[in-house]
Amino acid sequence: MIPAEMETRIVRYGDLKPCKTAFIDAHTPGSDQKENFTIIGGGVSESPDQHVHINLPHGFNIGAAGQPPKCRNSLHSHRTAEVFFVLKGRWRFFWGRWGTAGEVILEEGDIINIPTGIFRGFENIGTDYGMIMAILGGDDAGGGVIWAPQVIGDAKDHGLILGANGKLYDSKKGESLPEGIGPMPLLTEEELKAYPELSPMQVVGFGVRRYYDMVAMAQKTPCLVIGEKGIIRDKPGFEVGFLTRDSSSADMHQHDRPSVLMPMKGHWKLKWDGGEATLNPGDTASVPAGLMHTAVPAMTGEASLFHIVATGDPAGATWSGT
In which domain of life is the source organism classified (predicted)? Predict the structure, then answer.
């Protein structure tokens, strides 16, 4: 593959195109300053304004959320896995019907695999603009977002209505639901019983791993963070690996599915059969299936990188906490 072709599969952090109207809480005070990024795959945005950087099937989606301090993402759920790692800032993740079942604070490099089927939200509690990178299971990411009922009610009070077709309509712009399309039905009290109120021990013990613990585990060989044999034992339809300077190798290898490289710290040299490119923290590189490649640190200093590849497992509900 010539460098020009490979460059089309590399999304640079500085080239990310945000959408500020991606979800139903885009006008709700406290959530109205967030930016959503869809990097690989169709994502779960409810807005036609969402830009998709790489619209190729990988078996999973890659996205990101950027938020200023004190900005939060409202309570929602997914039918497939949702994994985050903190690229920049300090973040509070919370969960439960009202967001009060538990919470955990994540620092830069920390990762969380949120159990499928619980309401979850997150907030930037740092002092500067923060960014979290997201991996969603499946090519269609489970068909969209399931919102806690109060989120839909709050959004309507501020001019946004979510149609049963999964699209947003903004009354502030004179928009209304099209003929024959009703509003998205609210979950009933009986349906809400299917969304467990997991304890902090269940969520944190299962799905949170700290950056420097992963660094220690990846001293000699890459660390499998999420996978059937990972330090987070789960089968969400993809595996997440982690490597550092000490566990990187110049040996070329290939995968039978597309893989994704996401640097966390330092500068990395991605080399493939036909060229090379430098990756920086926040960049996302999609490597085609069957392409011989490797990644090694390009400079001295701390260097770490997340690696994602799809597996043959179905991208449905995984660990439920029960």
Answer: Bacteria
